[in-house]
Specification:
Helix content of chain A: 40-55%
Subcellular location (chain B): Mitochondrion
GO molecular function (chain B): nucleic acid binding
GO biological process, one term (chain B): mitochondrial transcription
Shape of chain A: elongated
Largest sheet of chain B: none
Protein name (chain B): Transcription termination factor 3, mitochondrial
Strand content of chain B: under 5%
Number of strands of chain B: 0
Family (chain B): Belongs to the mTERF family.
Oligomer: heterodimer
Distance between the termini of chain A: 71 Å
Mean pLDDT of chain B: 88
Number of helices of chain B: 20
Number of strands of chain A: 12
Low-confidence stretches of chain A: 308-316, 326-351
Order of helices and strands of chain B: HHHHHHHHHHHHHHHHHHHH
Radius of gyration of chain A: 29 Å
Structural class of chain A: alpha+beta
Low-confidence stretches of chain B: none
């Protein structure tokens, strides 16, 4: 008979997303979630105590009439398996973290529990794009590119207008498109490469520096401005440096006051768990919600390992991308799917 | 070749009752082990401790505590101390947790324990307050009389409180008497110099929330910085509601930003729609959303995901 704790533990297998608050290290979140899961598992009632044969001095039965004490065996509960002696039933739950977020950033953080950790590896290698919202402020430059560290220089920003900003963003995006084509190691003069590029399925093979596949300005209210970025292979420091470089290109300076990840592959912010919901039952519900996406990621990972050819893996990537693309169209912030943006921007970038 | 010289009886040989009684059976207990599990059933001390609720697994992780517990004799060492604690007024349900936190009560001599309790009674602590203090800070009675005296004197002098108020503070947080004094002195200096609280404000804060004295200095500074500089709350209001210094920083930050987004961040008592700091911090999430922010819990969660 399986105990309640064992049944609960078997349900803790899969991926889910958590919304990381700003200022908190990712390791603290991982430890909090692990201790919450362990607390729930260890609060299940322990198994019944085992019985052991013990010899006790009991008085003999009434038929003898005398009060002799004789040794007689009886089954008594043994204290050796008491939970206060053996300790808690579960000591460790394997909780792994997907693409990490540093302490300054906030946003969607993918975590894997139990067997989901194997799928995390496939997710990291599967070239999924990530969506970030970057908040910037003109007028200052700091050594860490964020707004809390030491200020190095102060500049004016009155000359910055929205179309100058758009021009700078277009130039950056053109450079990134060129990098994407170079690192995808595909000759664009072939027909199949052209078709992939039209559909927006080019992605870098092997190791590559951070590449932005999409970039636009959502909000411009000098000195504050907000950019929306889709990128591959990035770190949060690179994105803060991007804001700094935007400021430099506009002949001013800028610091980043917030980096927020709104999407990590197929995991979006709407389904991410906030701090109040980091309990075992909410996590198990979230794992059940993401079961289909987890299965798809695992299957695509298996195909990529067995089949090294470009075409078939491209087909699987296309399948995942189309699902992400369909769900992207429901996403409020994006107005056009990724493929359109690439076709638009190639012309002014190369021109 | 010498084996044939030894005559060994066969195990199926019949022997008389007297010979059977004289056979020595070696004890099945292992001479050493990593856990207390093999000894629990045989040892009276250990089984009685488990029945009291002492967490033996936790205690055997600490170095040398396991061997000390196995060597104790129940009737000579453990029983007198347990009766002493019961006479003091400590509840039986709490005995297990006290012994789990501090097993060295059982090795302290009974005279020392009685001397320390009588010292506390001369300082006019009532019987119930001594019992409460021992259950909250199990290491209290392991400290010598001079050390307790030193600490009580320090608190009375440094905080400038009357004897009655010092007793009240120490009864609510007896850990103050167990810890070292350097971090407490640093916290007091930080309150006075860095935060800029006046003497009587510090006294009021400490009597309302004694935990400020042993709080982490960096976290305290972070909370005070946010409340005073970002939320623009003056010193007098913070001193009036010191619970805010004890709260979690992320909670204060998210709730304040939510109220600011809704336009309801009003912390001055003279203005309309005033929100007191203790209501900001103390209320659970659903009550906060419905009463203070006048919004739904889902709105608050959606807002949290935009921070």
């Amino acid at each position: 008979m399986t105990t309640k704790a064992a049944r609960l533990f078997r349900r803790m297998d899969g991926l889910f997303a958590v919304y990381k608050p700003q200022g908190v290290h990712w390791k603290l979140i991982r430890d909090t979630i692990e201790s919450n899961l362990l607390k729930e598992l260890n609060s299940c009632p322990p198994p019944a105590p085992q019985l052991a044969v013990k010899f006790q001095l009991l008085s003999s039965g009434e038929n003898n009439g005398s009060k002799d004490l004789i040794l007689s065996p009886s089954m008594l509960p043994s204290l050796a398996n008491h939970p206060l002696v053996t300790g808690p039933q579960f000591h460790k739950v394997h909780v792994g973290v997907g693409h990490r977020l540093d302490a300054f950033s906030s946003g969607v953080l993918v975590l894997g529990v139990g067997k989901g950790n194997y799928v995390l590896e496939h997710l990291c290698k599967s070239h999924v794009t990530r969506d970030y919202t970057l908040e910037g402020e003109f007028g200052r430059a700091t050594d860490d590119f964020s707004d809390t560290t030491r200020v190095i220089e102060k500049t004016t920003y009155d000359h910055v207008t929205q179309d100058k900003l758009e021009r700078v963003l277009a130039m950056i995006q053109g450079a990134n498109q060129k990098a994407l084509i170079t690192y995808s190691q595909m000759d664009l003069r072939t027909q199949e490469a052209y078709e992939l590029a039209v559909k927006g399925l080019l992605y870098p093979h092997g190791k590559s520096p951070p590449i932005l596949t999409g970039l636009r300005c959502i909000h411009f209210n000098p000195p504050h401005f907000t950019l929306e970025v889709q990128c591959v292979n990035e770190t949060q420091k690179y994105l803060r440096k991007l804001i700094h470089e935007v400021g430099l290109e506009l002949r001013s300076s800028a610091v980043c006051s917030g980096v927020r990840r709104t999407r990590d592959g197929p995991f979006k912010a709407e389904n991410a768990l906030t701090r109040q919901h980091w309990t075992a039952d909410c996590i198990i519900q979230a794992i059940a919600h993401f079961r289909k996406t987890t299965r798809k990621i695992r299957k695509s990972g298996m195909y990529r390992q067995t089949d090294g050819q470009l075409n078939s893996s491209a087909k699987i990537q296309e399948q995942i991308r189309s699902e992400i693309g369909q769900s992207d169209q429901e996403h409020v912030e994006l107005t056009s799917p990724t493929s359109d943006r690439i076709v638009d921007r190639v012309a002014p970038g190369t021109g | 070749m010498g084996l044939d010289a030894v005559v060994r009886p066969s195990p199926l040989q019949e022997i008389s009752e007297e010979e059977a009684i004289q056979i020595q059976v070696p004890s099945a207990l292992p001479p050493d082990s990593f856990t207390l599990k093999p000894y629990v059933d045989q040892s009276e001390t250990l089984s009685k401790l488990v029945q009291l609720g002492v967490n033996l697994w936790e205690l055997e992780q600490r170095p040398n505590v396991g061997s000390m517990l196995v060597r104790l004799d129940f009737h000579a060492d453990v029983a007198p101390k347990l009766l002493f604690l019961k006479d003091l007024g400590v509840e039986e349900s709490k005995l297990g947790t006290i012994l789990t936190k501090n097993p060295f009560i059982l090795t302290e001599s009974l005279d020392n324990l009685e001397a320390r309790v009588s010292y506390l009674k001369t300082k006019k602590f009532s019987q119930e307050s001594v019992a409460v203090m021992v259950s909250k800070a199990p290491y209290l009675l392991n400290f010598s009389v001079e050390r307790l005296d030193n600490r009580l004197g320090f608190f009375q002098k440094q905080l400038g409180l009357s004897a009655e108020k010092t007793r009240n503070v120490v009864t609510r947080l007896p850990k103050l008497l167990c810890r070292s004094l350097e971090p407490i002195k640093e916290n007091l200096k930080v309150c006075e110099l860095e935060f800029g609280f006046r003497g009587n404000e510090i006294q009021h804060i400490v009597t309302t929330v004694p935990k400020v004295l042993i709080a982490n200095k960096r976290k305290l500074t972070q909370i005070f910085d946010f409340v005073h500089n970002t939320m623009d709350v003056p010193h007098s209001l913070i001193a009036k509601f010191p619970q805010v210094l004890n709260a979690k920083f992320l909670r204060i930050k998210e709730r304040h930003l939510f109220l600011e987004y809704l336009g309801r961040a009003q912390y001055q008592p003279s203005q309309p729609n005033y929100i007191s700091l203790d209501r900001l911090v103390f209320l659970p999430d659903d009550v906060f959303c419905s009463d203070v922010a006048l919004a739904t819990l889902e709105d608050f969660e959606r807002f949290q995901k935009t921070l």
